[in-house]
DNA sequence: TTGAAAGCGCTACCAT
DNA sequence: ATGGTAGCGCTTTCAA
């Protein structure tokens, strides 16, 4: 059961290993006839190239790493699906690494991916630039940041138009008559989170209703975190009549808090989510939400990465996708009084 | 920026490459003092082993493959977390492959994992034995099946005690007074699905209430599939008063169907789910469910795999974990009449 | 157009 | 206890 090597094929055809290599790589230098004979023999022997040996020689492994903050979040899972939908058909293996949003795990994973000589890395919701990413760039390994933009440097970026997304949510609520609108934003100091808050402040200020203190809460992405933040907001002297949560999971946290206080949604509180995963569409949830084109985000990230793997001298690029908006039944006009 | 190799370290310390290799592998043959000097030099130069070169030589890559039927299902995501929680700290890279439950993609992924010389493969909800898995075993690559048991052969298996799980659900419903209990099982002819149906039939028959025709539906794992099946059951002359869905997502499909028909849960229909993911616990869902120890399943699978990676002569083993049961508000006594 | 041979970085053997 | 060296399977000059 020993492995079939290029040598076996060469012997079988009666040519050199070099010729087999060139033939299988479909190099123009080899005669069509020789190519045919080589392919035939390879087929018969069940030969397949060893990516490992090839990698040692060329430095190209045919694998790409994906570093993701939370694999168990359906939102990220959908994005991953988008990524592999382009990478897998091309024969790339994807090494998915989960970081639990922990900086040291991010670092660890990127370091290990580099040792394994991945051809490129997608940083999905990566918190910030690190020594490891710097090393990646220095080693010429292309990086694509997705969803969050880590500060600085030579990385391509795929994201959503956050100001537009925020305005979509605000316009909906404003037109329903809401004036005290709270915001639950991601706690981490990431660019999308900040862009959203800026758009939020700008919008409300522009309409003469600048947000009151306590109306913006920075939370982690967990359901519990948003639940707690919501409970705090409900204790404000003039609590919000509507809440914008910048992820579906956060919105679920809001609904938990409301349930605990015996408040009804949307009667007592309107809630707008972000993402619009399948959860938002469940009959019991029916969350009005900004919808994020998850698969498309993944697809674009993969394409940007491939582009730079093919030619690393290409400049980095940014792709910004437009959000949609889906009105369901978690929003309504505020109660009189 | 050329890579630091073992040769550089050897030169620096003034020993041979062989000694460096042995020292870093902590082989007892090397003096403690030499080891110290080698480690020191490696540190100073920023040397790290090349897993690729090592793999070419030893056949061990330090990577394991995970083939999963649906990455976007939070249930499987949780299991993956369990797997990596043991593999990652040990320095293993995990290559996660999504198959969308498609046989040809399963085959494709296993084949590619073998070419990449993974040290072992976890088959998470793998549908059936294939040429690729046979090849894996022939090549001496250990396989662990998780959740579903693919027919035959030399694979370790980690699963749940399905008969017990089913009885937990039935006992709960029976004691509430339900007698017409429907079952939504996975459509595929997998062993757990069948074990559950057998336990179901046996339980009800043993109590003199064998399931009527149409009370068991085989569905795919999607929300829509279960919705459709539920609608059909509701059209039966004597529709069930309770439904057991063998996954949380299926249970959500049931609730969709109920919502469409204007039926209330649990008043008009009790529903028991399987899995008990975070979705089941949401205030709007509150699904009574058999709870599956997802992380533990993953952890055991990883351990079984490591065991056989370390010593492939070890016999395959099975691990069967016990389910829990969580009563929430999707179940109640049947309505009078 | 094809072949011979070097070498990617490492480990395992055999000497010393 | 340490060193020399072959070779894992492949690609890539360079020569023929």
From TrEMBL, chains A, B:
Q: Which GO terms describe its molecular function?
A: DNA binding
Top-rank taxon of the source lineage equals Bacteria
According to the UniProt entry, the coiled-coil residues are: none
Q: Which UniProt keywords apply?
A: DNA-binding, Repressor, Transcription, Transcription regulation
SMART domains assigned to the protein according to its UniProt record, in alphabetical order: HTH_LACI
What region holds the HTH lacI-type domain?
4-58
The organism that produces this protein has a lineage beginning with:
Bacteria, Pseudomonadati, Pseudomonadota, Alphaproteobacteria, Acetobacterales
Name by which UniProt lists this protein:
LacI family DNA-binding transcriptional regulator
Q: Which organism is it from?
A: Roseococcus pinisoli
Which Gene3D superfamilies is this protein grouped with? 3.40.50.2300, lambda repressor-like DNA-binding domains
Q: Does the keyword Transcription apply?
A: yes
């Amino acid at each position: 059961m020993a492995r079939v090597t290029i040598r076996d094929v060469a012997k079988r055809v009666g040519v050199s290993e070099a010729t087999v290599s060139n033939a299988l790589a479909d190099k123009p230098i080899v005669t069509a006839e020789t190519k045919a004979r080589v392919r035939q023999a390879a087929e018969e022997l069940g030969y397949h190239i060893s990516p490992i040996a090839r990698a040692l020689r060329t430095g190209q492994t045919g694998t790409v790493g994906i570093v993701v903050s939370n694999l168990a979040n359906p939102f990220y899972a959908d994005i991953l699906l988008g990524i592999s939908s382009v990478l897998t058909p091309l024969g790339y293996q994807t090494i998915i690494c989960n970081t639990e949003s922990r900086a040291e795990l991010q670092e660890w994973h990127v370091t290990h991916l580099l040792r394994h000589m991945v051809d490129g890395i997608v940083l999905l919701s990566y918190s910030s630039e690190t020594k490891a990413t710097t090393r990646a760039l220095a080693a010429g390994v292309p990086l694509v940041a997705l969803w969050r933009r880590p500060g600085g440097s030579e990385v391509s970026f795929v994201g959503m138009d956050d100001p537009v997304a925020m305005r979509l949510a605000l316009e909906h609520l404003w037109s329903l008559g809401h004036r005290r609108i709270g915001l639950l934003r991601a706690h981490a100091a990431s660019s999308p989170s900040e862009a959203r808050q800026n758009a939020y402040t700008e919008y409300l200020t522009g309409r003469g209703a600048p947000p009151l203190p306590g109306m913006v809460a920075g939370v982690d992405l967990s359901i519990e975190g948003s639940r707690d933040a919501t409970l705090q907001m409900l204790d404000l002297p003039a609590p919000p009549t509507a809440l914008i949560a910048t992820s579906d999971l956060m919105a679920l946290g809001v609904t938990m808090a409301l349930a605990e206080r015996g408040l009804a949604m949307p009667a007592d509180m309107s809630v707008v989510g972000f993402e619009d995963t399948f959860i938002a569409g469940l009959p019991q949830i029916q969350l009005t939400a900004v919808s994020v084109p998850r698969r498309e985000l993944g697809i674009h990230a993969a394409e940007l990465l491939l582009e730079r793997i093919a030619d690393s001298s290409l400049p980095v690029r940014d792709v910004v996708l437009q959000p949609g908006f889906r009105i369901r039944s978690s929003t309504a006009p505020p109660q009189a009084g």
